[in-house]
Design a protein that fits this description.
Strand content: under 5%
Helix content: 55-70%
Structural class: mainly alpha
Radius of gyration: 21 Å
Shape: rod-shaped
InterPro entries: ABA_WDS
Family: Belongs to the abscisic acid and water stress-induced protein family.
Oligomer: single chain
Distance between the termini: 27 Å
Pfam family, one: ABA_WDS
Number of strands: 0
Length: 109
């Protein structure tokens, strides 16, 4: 891979003549997505707790509420995975920005 190329995103199609990547903007982009994912984790977790409470209060439909609780919990786990992914992408963009501006990482140990 030639120096300066950026291939870890699937849908970032660059056309000829476009400006080079702005790593600060990319870092900000991933930070916003990370925060949105965190909100998704909180919302799905809150809904799972709500359904758990409803399953105890409504024994006639407890099975339905239990299933909805489990689906919401799975959604929360999935959103957590997305947050982890975006955090990694944000760190990678920051590292690329530092490398592009001459800050080198010397890993001695």
């Amino acid at each position: 891979m030639a120096e300066g190329e950026h291939h870890h995103h699937l849908f970032h199609n660059k056309k000829e003549g476009e400006k080079p990547l702005d790593y600060k903007e990319e870092e900000k982009h991933h930070k916003h997505h990370e925060h949105a994912g965190e909100l998704g984790v909180v919302a799905a977790g809150a809904y799972a707790l709500h359904e758990k409470h409803k399953s105890g209060k409504d024994p006639e439909h407890a099975h339905k509420h239990k299933i909805e609780e489990e689906v919401a919990a799975a959604g929360a786990v999935g959103a957590g995975g997305y947050v982890f992914h975006e955090h990694h992408e944000k760190k990678e963009a920051k590292k690329e920005d530092e490398e592009a501006h001459g800050k080198k990482h010397h890993h001695l140990f």
